[in-house]
Design brief:
Blueprint: H1 4-7, E1 12-17, H2 21-27, H3 32-49, E2 55-64, H4 72-88, H5 90-95, E3 98-103, H6 113-123, E4 130-138, H7 140-151, H8 159-167, E5 177-180, E6 199-202, H9 212-228
Parallel strand pairs: 1-2, 1-5, 2-4, 3-4, 5-6
């Protein structure tokens, strides 16, 4: 069930917890860093196919607030990959009509990354094929806590107004489907407010392995459940490609 605000938007909002990069690499005798690099390739695949699957908003969990506890070398490599993505993917995002937003804190990111994020957001601001939201130094609990602090100064409050305080965006569609890769079955502080009514889909596939067929399978499962309970009429879902 979606709020009145989100019912106006007929394209899906899908969130993905991109889990399993390190385990994928370790099983192949590779460094964890190589796993994260392969994870970036998976992002490219999913961003490319998402609009054709009826997805209007795609939120990817890239780096949680808790991830700062990882080994310094791994954190540094992740920040290097983020910097690389921002420097090298913007032209492709603009070409494909993708609007990029980064959610989460920016004040703790290495020097220059916050400015690169702002530049990428400006460059892609007019994209209308897909809204790509990447969660970096993100905690859903912190987002709700910060919104509550801001709401304390208001004389009246609605769910829609509070949602805007949480997300920083007006009329953002609630999350319809949250996918987690790698076999873990928990939300890990991801989109707790926006995903209050989201369907959950867990797959054993590691994130670097996740492809268009896996996304199609998750969406088809979601569509079957929604039709069963009368919540979904039709979506422009393509058949899953042969693997």
């Amino acid at each position: 069930m979606q709020s009145d605000v989100t019912q106006a938007n007929d394209k899906l909002h899908v969130g993905i917890i991109m889990d399993g990069n390190g385990r994928w690499a370790t099983r192949r005798g590779l460094s964890r860093i190589r796993g994260h690099e392969a994870g970036v390739e998976a992002i490219r695949r999913i961003v490319e196919t998402a609009p054709r699957r009826g997805i209007g908003t795609l939120t990817l969990y890239a780096f949680s607030t808790d991830n700062w506890r990882r080994p310094k070398a791994e954190v540094a490599a992740l920040m290097t990959l983020l910097r690389f993505y921002l420097a090298n993917e913007v032209q492709s995002l603009v070409k494909n009509g993708v609007r990029l937003s980064v959610i989460g804190r920016r004040d703790r990111l290495p020097e220059g990354i916050a400015a690169a994020i702002a530049g990428a957001e400006r460059a892609t601001a007019h994209g209308n094929a897909l809204h790509l939201r990447i969660a970096v130094d993100y905690s859903a609990r912190d987002a709700i806590l910060n919104a509550a602090a801001k709401a304390a100064a208001l004389t009246s409050l609605t769910r829609e107004a509070f949602s805007q305080l949480v997300t920083g965006e007006a009329s953002l569609r609630d999350v319809d489907l949250i996918i987690r890769t790698s076999g873990e079955k928990r939300l890990s502080d991801f989109l707790l407010w926006e995903g209050a009514y989201a369907e959950l889909h867990f797959t054993e596939r590691m994130w670097p392995e996740f492809d268009a067929g896996d996304l199609a399978e998750a969406l088809a499962s979601f569509q079957r459940r929604e039709r069963r309970f009368g919540g979904l009429q039709s979506l422009p879902l393509e058949p899953a490609p042969s693997l």
